UniProtKB/TrEMBL annotation:
Name used for this protein in its record: Probable membrane transporter protein
Pfam families reported for this sequence: TauE (PF01925)
InterPro entries named in the record: TM_pro_TauE-like (IPR002781), TSUP (IPR052017)
Record's keyword annotation contains Translocase: no
Cell compartments where the protein resides: Cell membrane
N-terminal signal peptide: none
Length: 246
């Protein structure tokens, strides 16, 4: 049985799923963080997160197939331990967290980082790989709470000076890993259930169209503009998260 959502809610959900697909297909998840906040305008954030996770996994299959082989395996492996840590913390603290507090902190961090990158986009040298563990831990945690893993991941990967294709591919594989890790806890906590699963299944074609359109768009955007768009997306996401929290 499908959830009894209003027409407005379904329109927001469809648009959010499409936006996430475009983001996953060609923009390293930079715009996908807007999905849960947008859906949360009409349904609860918990329902939004539970409905979206199976779709994220479907999108991951499409996106990984398109980008496999172009990722930095070293960067992906650096992230894996932290992703487990972040998801574990989110699972343990589930129900006792202030979702608004997490959104506010993440939003402020995103805005500050995006402003810094816009004002000073070129660093003298890449940041140390030692930052991978804390960045991945925050990524796993915020991804678990609201599928908002892009800001902390971008904060680490963007200063690593990867090429556009390597950056997108590395983000794509890492998102697939963290979403897979999240599935068990989401089912155990009841965030993914039969009702949400039916809604997710209905939206699979929207997810597929979004990913395909994202792949088409990214190939027509040069590297400098691409990174500018990712930074601007982080800024927009940050403002949105702060607004949602307040």
């Amino acid at each position: 049985m499908l959830p009894d959502y209003s027409v407005i809610a379904w329109l927001l959900i469809v648009f959010s799923v499409y936006l996430t697909g475009v983001s996953k297909g060609g923009f390293a998840g930079g715009f996908g963080t807007l999905s849960v906040p947008l859906m949360a305008l009409a349904i609860s954030p918990t329902q939004a997160a539970g409905l979206l996770l199976p779709l994220l996994l479907v999108m991951d299959v499409f996106a990984v197939k398109a980008w496999w082989g172009k990722q930095s395996n070293a960067e992906v492996w650096r992230f894996v331990p932290g992703l487990f840590i972040g998801v574990a913390v989110g699972t343990v603290l589930f129900g006792s967290l202030s979702e608004q507090g997490v959104r506010l902190a993440l939003g402020i961090l995103s805005v500050v980082f995006a402003a810094y990158m816009l004002l000073k986009p070129i660093a003298k040298k890449p940041i140390s790989s030692r930052w991978a563990l804390p960045a991945a831990s925050v990524c796993g945690f915020t991804s678990f709470i609201a599928h908002a893993g892009a800001p902390p991941m971008n904060m680490y990967l963007m200063p690593r000076k990867l090429t556009k294709e390597t950056f997108i591919a590395t983000c794509t594989i890492t998102y697939a890993v963290v979403n897979t890790i999240k599935l068990g806890p989401y089912v155990w906590l009841g965030e993914v259930n039969m009702t949400s699963a039916w809604a997710s299944l209905l939206l699979v074609p929207v997810a597929w169209i979004g990913v395909r359109n994202g792949l088409w768009l990214q190939s027509r955007v040069n590297e400098k503009l691409f990174y500018r768009l990712v930074i601007l997306a982080m800024f927009a996401v940050g403002i949105n998260l702060v607004w949602q929290a307040l």
